[in-house]
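Our example pasted here:


***
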Amino acid sequence: MGFQRFTTCFLLALCILSQSLTKGTFGFACNWGTRTTHPLPPEILVKLMKDNGINKVKLFEAEPTALKALGKSGIQVMVGIPNDMLDLLATSVNNAIAWVDQNVSSYISKIGVDIRYVAVGNEAFLKTYNGRFVQSTFPAIKNIQAALIKAGLGRQVKVTTPLNADVYQSDSGLPSGGNFRPDIQNQMISIIKFLSQNGGPLTFNIYPFLSLDADPNFPKEFAFFDGSASPVVDGSISYTNVFDANFDTLISSLEKNGFGSMDVIIGEVGWPTDGNSNANAKSAQRFNQGLVNRIVKKQGTPKRPTPPEIYMFALLDEDAKSIDPGPFERHWGIFNFDGSMKYPLNLGSGKSLVGARGVKYLTKQWCVISSNTNVLDPSFAESMSKACTYADCTSLAPGSSCSGLDTKGNASYAFNMYYQTLDQRKDACQFNGLSVVTNIDPSPSQGTCHFEIMIDIGKHESKSTSSAAPRIGIEYFMVMLVSSFIIILLSLFI
């Protein structure tokens, strides 16, 4: 009887431990972009990811400081190769071997980075590239695959290539009519076949926001997961949101070409918070909460009930990104550039989004327009132009968070962004006598416009690098708790 009681308690303890560890393995995936003038220290960013249950990350390039911070973090990594390297990698397998040795093998073996994928190129078949990378993408993929095999990583690290959703289309306008664009049909089939043979997934970026932004007649509610737009009926399937319809157009394209079971990853999906009238925190919260809910519920699409791996775009805002697609391009982050929260998200299991900790800032002072400045001063426009050429003024774009400022307010915002971007240098607030430094926050009391204070990179760089005592994780605590429990039980029955 005593042994039976012990067995029951032992199994119960194992169940408790198993449930705890299982919860610990569930998580989210996110993109980590590094196009920023004042980067959040990588160690803080990695901690931010772990605090929010993000256990997979995609890097757009093999950025050394990011990879070093990810060493032994428990976070799985997809390392990207920029498009401007495709020609080099396509022309010589030796170039690919050198790249893999420097950017994959060394980080895995020496630092303990858990690299799972190499993403060759980024949206290389995008229509706006006019075929620039069409001929080099597949040879680069083959050479990187050969390099991984040579390095003994062929099973551990898989090759993929992130593509934009514009590589497929539907002549009928319905998901069932999906097929790949005729101009890249042959290249797509060759890539898909090769990846399939080598166990690599296809990666696609889907942006409901861009669908809405590009078409003034697009039904706005159809962009959201909880929308009330009229469904799109395709045979026996009714689509209630553009994400499902877009993804299933891809699946139809794969089915038509004999690859219906091909593994697919969503490499980028998200919603920006600034840059035009559709890009705001309210819409971003609505969209991303719907996306998180689907991830937590493991919800797929009508044609693929099993959900794909989804990398949310993006982790942080990037104030140095190209704005060719639009001013919103610098505002895709779930978090602000400094890791502070933009809006709350319910992550499931009673967990909520939390911001970064330990961030050091520059002095609380701002550069603003002088009260006696005449906006008709000949140097006024020149000063504004200078500020916005070297700093991020996208929040002043029509429909953006600071678009409601008056002329002097616009100047103050621009001057301050320039001042902060140049680390509050004394000469950075000298706009032909039009500006002054103030310690009174000029951010409007109403609305969402915010005058930034940048991260103090110097303080973070000078911080001692000595290791603090490691924190004991909940998994370790539960193991010790159960072990102690078992020891106590054993002592009762021996």
In short: The longest strand covers residues 114-120.
